[in-house]
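Weekly modeling sync, notes
Attendees: S.R. (lead), two postdocs, one rotation student

Agenda item 3: backlog of single-chain predictions. S.R. asked that every request posted to the team notebook include the full sequence so nobody has to chase files. The rotation student volunteered to paste the first one in as an example of the format we agreed on. Action items at the bottom.

Example entry:
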Amino acid sequence: MFAIALLFTLLSATPRQATIAPGAVDDYELTLRRGESAAVVVRQEGVDVVAELRGPGGALLDEVDGPTGRSGDEVVEVIAAEDGRYSLRVRPYDAKEPAGTYTIFLRDQRDAAATRRLLDDRAAARRRAAEWLRPGSAPLADGHSLDALASRARVVALGEATHGSRELGDARLTLTRRLVEQHGFRVITVEWSRDRVAALLRDPGTAAGTWMGRRTMRELVRWTREWNAAHPADPLRLIGVDAQDNADSRAVLRDFVAAAYGGDFTARWAAVEKEIAAADEQSAVFGDSNVDAGARQFLVELRGRLALDAPLLAPKYGEAFAAAQRAAETLAQFADYNAGAPAGRTRDWYMAANVLAAAKDGRTIYWAHDAHVAARGNATGARLRAALGCGYAPVAVTFGQGAFIAQLPNDPADRLQRSTLPPAPPESLESTLALLGDSPTLTTWPCGDARTAPPEWLRAPHAMHWVGGIWTPGSLPSAALRAFDVLHDFDGVVYLPEVTAEEIPGDWPLVPARKR
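Predicted structure, as returned to the notebook:
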C-alpha cells in the first residue's frame, strides 16, 4: 500500500474543501512505488484551476485543465514510473480568476497488480472499439468510406487537428476532389477570409493574409480554376466564410459611402474604418481585436440603410451597390463578434450562417479546424447540425505523431515556430484508430449511431489531437489533446499516422501591439 499526504494536511478519500485566492497555490504530495497508480479529483466550485503533476525528480509530467470552466472535475491520473514522491500543485488558471473554492479527494488507489489489470482492461476496450469501427474504415486513398456519408449529406465538413501540418491539408484536398468529381459537390467554403479567397481566385499569386493552410489554399484555388476552365457550364464556387482579413471590404465600402452618401456620413465612416482596421490587423496575430460598441452600431445601421435604400441605389450603382452590401455584411459580422455580441453571435455563429447561405447554391464542402466542424457545443458544426440534421456530415482529420507550425504566444515579433509531438497516448482516439492499420485511413459511421450499439469505450469522451493557431514549443504533449465524444461530435475521422510541418512563410509580418 502507499500513503498520500498533503503538505499541510493529510489527504484521504474523504473530500476536503479549500479556498484559493488569485495568485495562490496549494501543494500536495503522494508517495508511490513503481507500477502503482492513483486518481485524484479536483472539483472546481467557482474558480477555474489547473492541476500540475510532477515526478519525484521535479519534472513536470502533466498539466490538467479540461474545458470545464469554473465548475466540474479535473481528474489527475498518476501511474508511477519510479518510486518516490509525486507532487500535485493546484493553482488558478490565470491572474484574472476570482477567489473561489475547490474540493480535492483521492478517488482511486491501486497497487501494481491492480494497475496492470486496469491497463489490460483498457487495452481490451480499445480493441473492441476498433473492431466496431473496422467495417466503416478504408484506406484514405480509395475513398470508399466517404461514399455512404457523401450520398446523404448536403454539407460535408473536413476538419484539421492543426493549422500547420502538411498532410492534413493534403488529405482534405484528396477528399474534396472525390466529393466534387464523384458526388456532385459544387460549393467549397473555407475558414478563410471572404476577401482573401476572392482575391486569390482573381490572382493566385496574391500574397496570403494568413499563414494557416496557405500552401493548401493555393493548391485548392489552382484546382478550382482548372476545374472551372474545363467545366464552364458546371463551375465550382470557392467562398471564404470568415469576416477577418477584411481590407478589401473596407476599401469597397469607403468608396461607396463617399459616392452614395458623402458629407457627415463619410466622416463617421472614416472613424469606424480606422477602428475596424486596427482590430483586423490584430486578429491576424491573435492580438487585441476588440471593436468598440459605436463602430458596431454604425455598421449595423449602415447595413439597414443599404437595405432600405436598395430601390434607389441598386439601379444607379449596379454591381458596385451589390459589392457594398457584401462588404457591409462582412464588416458588420466582424464588428459584432468582436464587440461582445449578444445571444451567442460568435465567429462560429457567423461562419455557420455563411456556410448555410452558400449551401443554397448546391451541395457544399466546409473546411475548418476540427474544433469548428464538431457537431456539438458552440462550434460552427453544432449550428449546422441544428439546421440540417444528418444532412450535415463532419469529418475530423487527425494524426498520431509529428510536426506543425504555430505562432508563439505573446511574442513581440509574432514569430512562427515548428514543434513536434510524440506518439499519441494509449487512451487517445488516435491510438485506437491506429489499430485499424498503419497507413492513412478514413473511418465513418452512420449519423445518429444507426448501427448496433457501440462498445462502452466509444460511448465516452476521449482525447484527440487539437492544436490551435498558438502553441508554446516544449509544452507537454497533453496540452495538444482535447476530449471529444467522437461518435456524436463527428460522422467520421481521417487518421494519419505521422505528419510534417508546413514551411514557415518568409513574408509573415510583425504587427505591433495595439495602443489604446
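Discussion: group reviewed the output briefly. Residues 4-110 form a domain with the Jelly Rolls fold (CATH 2.60.120.380).
Action items: rotation student to repeat for the remaining queue; S.R. to check formatting next week.
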